[in-house]
């Protein structure tokens, strides 16, 4: 059943057309992703679908009585509500039903057993049961839990005014999801979600019966969730039925085919123009020349033409990193804490020359505090952070502080880099600031522009050790891929925090996780680390089930106890733990060896060195665990 049908939608902004002739049909369980550069009109289209904006042309039809929910980046208006009250307002019809049932129950308790009252009560009860009964509140709590909120009274009853901006964004998303909509509209739903919450959201959306339209820049999320793509480019729209990666392949093939067709057309026009130029004035060839002129005009009018599009893109690379000592950064015996809480104690981390480390952990584990400590922005409470020989640190905070302050984009770039004249303008041009855009006031630039300016200053710094906290914040998909390419090619050392899983996997050669208040190093990329973690969790769940099954007969059998020979329970438990660690280490080693089979791993001296070191470290980890297991058994 069609939930929404758009026919030739168009809208103007500031007197100029933003997009025109946008058409599509959305069925139940279809999840359409919107693709296009920042400013293409994706968020505007969501607001049209939500009924907040009227199109200037075309027609939008939404199924009768369909519930529509929109989540965007605007914070909740009423900050005096508690989190519980705010999210429950998404099911106002069920709250109304519960109130009606309470009223009718009070009347019946008072002696009103009329046929009219009983019929009203039966109807309200039936409507509530059809909507899921009284369990609907549990479903709302499950949504809050999935998005990282603890469903405890101290959290649920807190006023919205006491939550951070990121928490308010997650609350807005929870409200949209909890509303059980028929048409769900999501604008950047992955913002402020940690990786476990991202994975929960993917699974939740895949299980919905609703039609979903979403805007996101997380490539793994788009691939996991999307079933169709609506591409917005230079005011035009193209609908593609299929997953996100298939659309990317189709788009690339389309552009290649169009480019070849245009090249053939231009070559033919050039050949004909040479003929006309040579023979235009020869009496014997004049008639032929005139015929060719007409052919040229016909080719130009009817041949393939390049599609209108914004061809600007982020293009940059980091300067060649100067050689550092073996360990550019060392943190030893560090105690890192925030008021009222110790995040890490006696923590040690060594960053090797040319190594690319990704730092992961749940929200609140202390990733940003740790990275600020490593960058020298805050001292550890105990222990030391040592910067190695010939190190030039480049730090990019998640708030893009280097692009803040007063003045223009040009002035900020001059302050941050020391460049002047054409050199600073050339630098800004690589980051999509050209013409009058360099004169924009910092107070007027968008989040994406602020991030691009910070990256420009970082690139010009000549740093050979990069410390990056959420560098993809506010960047569109093309800019994220440009950053990924630049970081992958960078031969200096990198420490990276990001919720963009595609970036983590592309850049990282080692994964450091903050788990249970400890730093744990895994000599593999992020995907291998996550896979090993999931497999270990699955093994542990199976072991628990087996232990419970074995304990059940013992609990009901006889009074006598037999003294068991062999290893103690503690030894067996330790051996089992080591076996799980060995299994995980072997998975990591296999993943490293599979990665080394790709010639790209050996494409430069820096990559060759990193590949060899990762392989040796992974082998040593397996050997050490086997030695410990032999001792335990």
Radius of gyration, in angstroms, nearest whole number: 31 Å
Oligomeric organization of the protein chains: single chain
How helix-rich are the residues, as a percent range? 40-55%
Compute the separation of the termini in Å.
62 Å
- Please describe the biggest sheet, giving its number of strands, its sense, and whether it closes into a barrel: 6 strands, mixed
- In round numbers, the mean pLDDT is 84
Number of helical segments with 4 or more residues:
20
Reading side by side through the largest sheet, how are the strands ordered? Answer: 5-6-7-3-8-9
Q: Give the tally of β-strands.
A: 18
Structural class: alpha/beta
Q: Which descriptor suits the 3D outline? A: globular
User: Strand share of the residues?
Assistant: 15-25%
**Low-confidence parts:** 560-565
Walk me through this protein's architecture.
The protein is an alpha/beta fold and 633 residues long. The chain contains 20 helices and 18 strands. It has a 6-stranded mixed beta sheet with strand order 5-6-7-3-8-9, with helices on both faces. A hairpin with a 2-residue loop joins strand 10 and strand 11. About 1% of the residues have low confidence.
Q: Could you give a short description of this structure?
A:
The chain has 633 residues and is of the alpha/beta class. The chain contains 20 helices and 18 strands. Helix 5 runs antiparallel to helix 7, helix 10 (244-279) packs antiparallel against helix 11 and helix 19 packs antiparallel against helix 20 (605-632).
């Amino acid at each position: 059943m069609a939930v929404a049908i758009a026919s030739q939608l168009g809208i103007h902004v500031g007197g100029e057309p933003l997009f025109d002739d946008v058409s599509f049909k959305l069925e139940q369980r279809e999840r359409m992703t919107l693709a296009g550069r920042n400013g293409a009109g994706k968020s505007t289209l969501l607001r049209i679908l939500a009924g907040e904006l009227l199109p200037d042309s075309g027609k939008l039809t939404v199924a009768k009585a369909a519930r529509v929910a929109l989540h965007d980046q605007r914070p909740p208006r009423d900050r005096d509500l508690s989190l519980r009250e705010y999210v429950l307002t998404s099911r106002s019809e069920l709250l109304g039903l519960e109130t009606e049932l309470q009223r009718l129950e009070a009347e019946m308790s008072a002696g009103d057993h009329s046929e009219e009252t009983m019929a009203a009560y039966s109807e309200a009860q039936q409507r509530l049961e059809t909507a899921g009964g009284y369990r609907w509140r549990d479903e709302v709590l499950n949504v809050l839990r999935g998005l990282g909120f603890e469903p405890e009274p101290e959290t649920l009853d807190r006023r919205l005014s006491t939550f951070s901006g990121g928490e308010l964004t997650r609350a807005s998303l929870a409200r949209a999801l909890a509303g059980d909509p028929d048409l769900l509209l999501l604008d950047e739903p992955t913002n402020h979600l940690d990786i476990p919450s991202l994975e929960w959201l993917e699974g939740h959306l895949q299980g919905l019966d609703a039609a979903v339209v979403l805007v996101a820049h997380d490539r793994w999320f788009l691939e996991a969730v999307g079933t169709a793509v609506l591409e917005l480019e230079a005011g035009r729209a193209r609908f593609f039925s299929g997953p996100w990666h298939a659309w990317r392949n189709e788009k690339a093939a389309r552009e290649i085919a169009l480019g070849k067709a245009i090249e053939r057309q231009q070559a033919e026009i050039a050949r004909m123009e040479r003929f006309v130029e040579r023979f235009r004035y020869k009496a014997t060839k004049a008639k032929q020349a005139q015929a060719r002129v007409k052919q040229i005009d016909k080719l130009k009018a009817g041949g393939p033409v390049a599609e209108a599009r914004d061809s600007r893109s982020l293009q940059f690379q980091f300067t060649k990193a100067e050689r550092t000592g073996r360990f550019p950064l060392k943190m030893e015996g560090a105690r890192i804490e925030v008021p009222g809480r110790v995040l890490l104690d006696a923590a040690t981390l060594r960053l090797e020359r040319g190594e690319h480390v990704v730092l992961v952990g749940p929200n609140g584990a202390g990733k940003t505090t740790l990275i600020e400590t490593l960058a020298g922005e805050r001292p550890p409470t105990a222990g030391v952070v040592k910067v190695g020989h010939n190190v030039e640190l480049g730090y990019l905070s998640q708030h893009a502080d280097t692009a803040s302050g007063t003045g223009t984009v040009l002035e900020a770039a001059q302050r941050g880099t020391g460049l002047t004249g054409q050199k600073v303008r050339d630098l800004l041009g690589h980051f999509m600031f050209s013409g009058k855009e360099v004169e924009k006031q910092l107070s007027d630039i968008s989040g994406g522009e602020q991030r691009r300016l910070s990256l420009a200053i970082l690139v010009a710094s000549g740093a050979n050790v990069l410390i990056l906290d959420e560098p993809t914040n506010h960047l569109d998909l093309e800019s994220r891929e440009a950053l990924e390419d630049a970081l992958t090619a960078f031969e200096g050392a990198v420490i990276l925090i990001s919720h963009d899983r595609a970036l983590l996997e592309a850049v990282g050669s080692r994964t450091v996780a903050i788990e249970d208040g400890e730093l744990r190093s895994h000599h593999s990329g992020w995907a291998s680390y996550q896979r090993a973690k999931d497999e270990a969790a699955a093994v542990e769940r199976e072991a628990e089930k087996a232990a419970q099954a074995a304990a059940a007969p013992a609990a009901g059998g006889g009074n006598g106890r037999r003294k068991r020979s062999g290893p103690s329970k503690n030894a067996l438990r330790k051996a089992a733990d080591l076996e799980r660690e060995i299994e995980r280490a072997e998975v990591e080693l296999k993943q490293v060896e599979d990665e080394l089979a790709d010639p790209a791993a050996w494409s430069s001296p820096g990559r060759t060195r990193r590949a060899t070191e990762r392989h040796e470290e992974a082998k040593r980890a397996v050997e050490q665990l086997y030695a410990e297991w032999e001792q335990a058994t």
